[in-house]
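#struct-help
A.M.: can someone run this one for me? Single chain, 90 residues.
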Amino acid sequence: MTKPELIAKISEKAGITKENAERGLDALLGALEGALAKDEKVTFIGFGSFSTVERKERLGRNPKTGEKITIPAAKVVKFTVGKALKEAIQ
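D.P.: on it. Structure tokens below:
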């Protein structure tokens, strides 16, 4: 599903205009991004949790050449599925 498709679904389900749905979605994503940038955990009960984790430097391999390379450490976003969402997709 693309962002425009999601906006259309939100608009339809909430009975609001697409413009208002887009503003709401942009506000949600901005708040989520801001919280994760501050290393805060964001939890939607039943849906899941977003958090940041530090990934350590590790050894990898260039698939094209087979040469060993060092993959640098990085901060990444982790999503943990909530119970209700897990049950809904089974």
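A.M.: thanks! The CA atoms of residues 60 and 66 lie 9 Å apart.
D.P.: also worth noting: The longest strand covers residues 48-55.
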